[in-house]
């Protein structure tokens, strides 16, 4: 029996992508009727790059900024217009850059500030905006602030973090996501005190109650915006506010710890202050990871009248996929519910994968060679035709699959490695743990980008920091670029379709054929235009009963070369019709 493992997904991974500086005017009516509320970040297609695994330019086996620069033409060829880059700041890499030791410098593995400037310039020249990860719920324990803070109880930096003097006894338990013992309090003998870390021991939580900490963060944000970046993704920010009296939490709280950690009093004030001090002064976008505990929380984060953030992402959707499969009815219900929350006001982000998840096609589709391409294109169709800003993870445009490592030695993610140790310590069934890990580990989504059939998929001439997926000779960019029907070229077409048709961005969403357990069907409507999207989530043919007249419908895109014309869908078929 494996002890219940509380995963990152759905909790931490829900990010808020904030776009700063948009003097958002709240639409008075349904957004579908108010095109005057157009914003660049609503119309964007965001492509997420995991720099460590994208392209290595110097043969050290680690992706880097020069590697990204060498692929800017490729990124442009996708048609995407925003890149969200995972953290590239100086870091000892306990959590692949989510442990920052210097917010104003570039991680040595990734290059230099000159490389950064060249990369940003190259993106802007190609009409691509850059959104950076802002990791300020915590820093690295190797950040100068923390070194000072831990050095003495009287340090001026002491209150930059959360300390509990051991003279008072042990603090009340707090759950840590990445700690081997899931204990968020780490004892430090230097000052005979415990410090708080919701993530790993090397990621101490910053104390947002301290105005100096807030000012430091705002200055860091200004530093990057002044360099010309276009927005921030606020990592784990929903956890920034804490009850610093650290009361005892009810037994079993760790099973639903977000209820106690997320959106605590003070959070909205911090965001309002950030908006006033930084975001409102620039034309940048902001997105938060995590949308709180309720629709109300989510809405309040992004309600334009509140002057906090532009967008948040919730985890309920991405968490639906399970090793044993998932219910399409549930999938439809969750995404329909979330759409309705933002139908009048506020804005949503749409995603099914990122660096904290296993691969899109392996989790939500079918990565068997027979269905891999078609199911991957079907999922891409979903992401690109929903209301909200799509966030698309690098490699998914090729239909890259889970590596599904079976040996713990192949894993690199601290969360996975520490959890492995934890499960061992409690005597869990390790075979079962490894089976689940092969499906869900974050490392599945972090294997090197598959560029071509050369050694290491063309990612590096050195030894890659994490193994390349064995299937790189059949799944890679070079092969797919030449094939007009590849997932890659399908992605390019559907990105263009979205960009050419504001109805896919702003159009009203309506679920049709609601009770169909296999097909997801919905319409998007704006002014006089109406699109119908049919998605067969099954590996067998299925029929959609949309109740709509398809006799005059025009097929705008279909993931088969011979599209359906009557709603009878082939396995994993996806079709977008224009009805009006
Ligand atoms: C969420 C990030 O997406 C994840 O990769 C990271 O491990 C945690 N936040 C901690 O920063």
Give a structural overview:
This protein is an alpha/beta fold and 580 residues long. The chain has three domains: 4-20 and 44-139 and 211-245 and 318-492, Alpha-Beta Barrel (TIM Barrel), CATH 3.20.20.80; 144-196, Alpha-Beta Complex (Oligo-1,6-glucosidase, domain 2), CATH 3.90.400; 508-578, Sandwich (Immunoglobulin-like), CATH 2.60.40. Helices cover 28% and strands 16% of the residues. The chain has 17 helices and 21 strands. The strands form five sheets. Strands 1, 2, 3, 6, 10, 11, 12, 13 and 14 form a nine-stranded mixed beta sheet that branches. A five-stranded antiparallel beta sheet has the order 15-16-17-21-19. A hairpin with a 6-residue loop joins strand 15 and strand 16. Helix 13 runs antiparallel to helix 14 (430-440). The structure holds 1-deoxynojirimycin (NOJ). 1-deoxynojirimycin (NOJ) is lined by residues 12-13, 95, 98, 135, 199, 235-236, 289, 355-356.
How much of the sequence lies in strands comes to 15-25%
Which distinct ligands sit in these coordinates? 1-deoxynojirimycin
For the record, the count of structural domains works out to 3
* Residue share in helix: 25-40%
**In CATH terms, what is the fold-level topology of the largest domain?**
TIM Barrel
Question: In one word, what is the shape?
Answer: globular
């Amino acid at each position: 029996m494996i002890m219940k493992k509380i995963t990152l997904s759905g909790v931490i991974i829900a990010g808020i992508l904030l776009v700063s500086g948009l003097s958002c005017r709240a639409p008075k009516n349904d957004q579908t009727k108010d095109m005057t509320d157009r914003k660049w970040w609503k119309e964007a297609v965001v492509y997420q790059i995991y720099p460590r695994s994208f392209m290595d330019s110097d043969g050290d086996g680690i992706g880097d900024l020069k590697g990204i620069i060498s692929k800017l033409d490729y990124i442009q060829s996708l048609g995407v217009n925003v890149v969200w880059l995972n953290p590239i700041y100086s870091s000892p890499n306990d959590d692949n850059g989510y442990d920052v030791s210097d917010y104003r410098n570039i991680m040595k593995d990734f290059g230099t500030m000159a490389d950064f400037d060249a990369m940003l310039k190259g993106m802007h020249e190609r009409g691509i905006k850059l959104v950076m990860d802002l990791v300020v719920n915590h820093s690295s324990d190797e950040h100068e602030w923390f070194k000072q803070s831990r050095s003495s109880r009287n340090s001026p930096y002491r209150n930059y973090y959360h300390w509990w003097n051991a003279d008072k006894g042990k603090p009340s338990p707090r759950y840590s996501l990445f700690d081997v013992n899931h204990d968020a309090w780490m004892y430090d003998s230097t000052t005979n005190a415990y410090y708080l870390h919701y993530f790993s021991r090397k990621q101490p939580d910053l104390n947002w109650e301290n105005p100096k900490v807030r000012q430091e963060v705002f200055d860091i944000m200004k530093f990057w915006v002044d360099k010309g970046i276009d927005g921030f993704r606020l990592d784990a920010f929903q956890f920034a506010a804490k009850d610093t009296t650290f009361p005892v939490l009810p037994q079993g709280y760790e099973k639903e710890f977000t209820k106690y950690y997320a959106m605590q009093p003070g959070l909205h004030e911090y965001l309002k202050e950030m908006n006033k001090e930084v975001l409102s002064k620039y034309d940048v976008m902001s997105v938060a990871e995590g949308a709180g505990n309720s629709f109300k929380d989510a809405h309040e984060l992004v309600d334009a009248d509140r002057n906090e953030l532009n967008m948040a992402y919730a985890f309920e959707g991405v968490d639906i996929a399970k090793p044993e499969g998932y219910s399409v009815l549930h999938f439809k219900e969750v995404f329909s519910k979330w759409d309705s929350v933002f139908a009048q006001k506020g804005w949503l982000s749409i995603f099914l994968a990122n660096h904290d998840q296993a691969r899109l096609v392996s989790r939500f589709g079918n990565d068997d060679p027979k269905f891999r391409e078609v199911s991957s294109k079907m999922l891409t169709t979903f992401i690109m035709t929903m209301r909200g800003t799509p966030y698309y993870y690098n490699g998914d445009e090729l239909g890259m699959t889970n590596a599904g490592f079976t040996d713990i030695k192949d894993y690199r993610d601290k969360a996975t490695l520490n959890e492995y140790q934890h499960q061992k310590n409690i005597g869990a069934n390790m075979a079962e743990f490894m089976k689940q890990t092969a499906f869900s580990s974050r490392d599945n989504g972090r294997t090197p980008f598959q560029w071509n059939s050369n050694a290491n998929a063309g990612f590096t001439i050195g030894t890659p920091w994490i193994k390349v997926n064995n299937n790189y000779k059949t799944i890679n960019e070079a092969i797919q670029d030449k094939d007009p029907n590849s997932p890659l070229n399908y992605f390019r077409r559907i990105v263009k379709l979205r960009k050419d048709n504001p109805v896919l961005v702003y159009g009203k969403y309506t679920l049709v054929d609601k009770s169909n357990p296999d097909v997801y069907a919905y319409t998007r409507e704006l002014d006089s235009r109406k699109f119908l999207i049919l998605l067969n989530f099954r590996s067998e043919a299925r029929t959609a009963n949309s109740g709509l007249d398809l006799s005059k419908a025009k097929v705008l895109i279909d993931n088969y070369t011979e599209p359906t014309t009557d709603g009878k869908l082939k396995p994993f078929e996806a079709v977008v019709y224009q009805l009006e």
